[in-house]
Design brief:
Residues 1-182 form the DUF6705 domain. This is DUF6705 domain-containing protein. Pfam families: DUF6705 (PF20448). It comes from Chryseobacterium lacus. With 182 residues, this protein is mainly β. It has a single domain (30-155, 170-181), classed as Lipocalin (Beta Barrel), CATH 2.40.128. Helices cover 10% and strands 42% of the residues. It contains 1 helix and 10 strands. The chain has an 8-stranded antiparallel β-barrel with strand order 2-3-4-6-7-8-9-10. A hairpin with a 4-residue loop joins strand 7 and strand 8. The chain is globular, with a radius of gyration of 21 Å. The N and C termini lie far apart (65 Å). The relative contact order is 0.16.
Length: 182
């Protein structure tokens, strides 16, 4: 019985080592990486509570990825307006008609990442009132709701350039909130 189990385990190991290939295929120059999962985020989303509001407008584009190889991909990008006590604190909505290449957006993502659960995306979120960008995690709930699960500072060394305010590690944008499609 031990020999039989040992043989089965050995055969299984050899099979997996030689016949199973990884699921991650490296993109090649000229590839066009399409991501239909991003479509469900496209549109205008809003959250309000006691005079504080956050409006996000997401668009999707298929554009050249800014790297050395000739690679295109679907990209979700967006604009936001953040109000506290009905006073605008951050607002990129005036740039809503800008093209992706004009780089006026304040939110960007290529979509899902392997370490995230299904229906979640990791985004870069510009937080201009704090003079920085933060990393966000958004969750698609249903056709009418998305959730900002978390916002956090990027890891690494923070450098203050001359003439810029000192680094502020606080994040005032709301998180753990559910936005409704407008």
């Amino acid at each position: 019985m031990k020999l039989f189990l040992k043989t089965i385990l050995s055969f299984s190991f050899i099979f997996f080592v030689f016949f199973i290939k990884g699921q991650n295929i490296e993109p090649q120059p000229g590839d066009n990486l399409l991501n239909a999962e991003l479509n469900k985020y496209v549109g205008t989303w809003k959250w309000e509570s006691n005079g504080t509001s956050l409006t996000i407008v997401f668009k999707k584009v298929n554009a050249k990825v800014p790297v050395t190889m000739n690679l295109y991909a679907d990209i979700l990008f967006g604009y936001h307006q953040y109000k506290v006590n009905n006073t605008i604190v951050e607002d990129s909505l005036p740039f809503i008609n800008a093209t992706f290449n004009q780089k006026k957006y304040t939110i960007i993502t290529f979509g899902t990442q392997p370490n995230l659960p299904p229906n979640r995306i990791s985004v870069g979120f510009n937080h201009p009132s704090k003079n920085k960008s933060v990393q966000g995690e958004f969750e698609y709930i249903d056709a009418n709701h998305i959730k900002i699960v978390s916002l956090k500072n990027y890891q690494g060394i923070k450098v203050n350039l001359p003439g810029q305010p000192p680094y502020d590690n606080t994040i005032t944008l709301p998180q753990n909130i559910i936005l409704t499609k407008q």
